[in-house]
Amino acid sequence: MEEDPSNSTTETTILSALSTLTQPQLSHLTHSISSLLRHHCYRLSALLSSPTLFTLALHHLHSISLPQKSLLLARHLLSTLSLLTHSLHTTTTTTTNLRHLDSTLLLLLLCEVRQHYPQALDTPPSQWLPSLSKYFSTTILSLSTLPISNNAILIQYIDLVAKCHRFVGVMGCGGGGEAAAAVAAVVGLPSVEVSGAARECVICKEEMREGRDVCELPCDHLFHWMCILPWLKKRNTCPCCRYRLPTDDVYGEIDRLWEVVVKVSGNKFIGESK
């Protein structure tokens, strides 16, 4: 199968970002990734060894729309991408319930089997479990014969992020529009006193008078509180420099974190997460 150029660019970008980490940061990231991958392997193993769990997860996948499937993968991408951006000093909070995790892992497995062993899915869905279990067992057995090293763990992580990145892009179900800043991020913005020469609020074009309390964004730009709050209810970017605040929108948050990764890697941001 011909390699997807965008997937290759994703892998290169992540590798470049990883190269900027110090040894302690890289060790901590590798430990976090290892724990995450072990958890995923445990859940997928439990899913394939339990006909009941498998049937529930498969039924859930069949019952949701393509945009909802894209959202499952996007949430998974966000949780894995946040591990890297946390090491790059950008934090975000992600949570995934077991039902969503099981459905996501099953969806990823189905996509992988469809790519490498398509005839296994030519049977009715009720007969998929044995084929999927055999494929999973063979894959895990192959991996278990390899030495477990930090490089091997990072390669698995990069492959997972690139795969989710590609699938979310192929499904094309992302928001694509502006996302409001997260409530928690807005509440945490500091109020500072204007000092020195008068400054203009770029939103209302009026002067911010000395001694008056105004809002300061993390990028150090100042605005009237009454001006910036309505702005942040609609978008999570600074009106001056386009700095992105965290957002509760999954696709918007992926864009924000991916922009951090691309910036650190030294590559030009091209909006790959769309």
Automatic annotation (TrEMBL):
Read off the InterPro entries from this record.
Answer: Znf_RING, Znf_RING/FYVE/PHD
Annotated keywords: Metal-binding, Zinc, Zinc-finger
Please, which domain of life does this record's source organism belong to?
Eukaryota
Recall the GO molecular function terms of this protein's record.
ubiquitin protein ligase activity; zinc ion binding
The lineage is: Eukaryota, Viridiplantae, Streptophyta, Embryophyta, Tracheophyta
Q: What Enzyme Commission number does this protein have?
A: 2.3.2.27
* Top enzyme category: transferase
Q: Which reaction does it catalyse?
A: S-ubiquitinyl-[E2 ubiquitin-conjugating enzyme]-L-cysteine + [acceptor protein]-L-lysine = [E2 ubiquitin-conjugating enzyme]-L-cysteine + N(6)-ubiquitinyl-[acceptor protein]-L-lysine
PROSITE patterns recorded for this chain?
ZF_RING_2
User: Which GO cellular component does the record give, naming just one?
Assistant: amyloplast
Q: What is this protein called?
A: RING-type E3 ubiquitin transferase
Residue ranges of every copy of the RING-type domain listed in the record: 201-242
Query: GO BP, one example?
Result: gravitropism
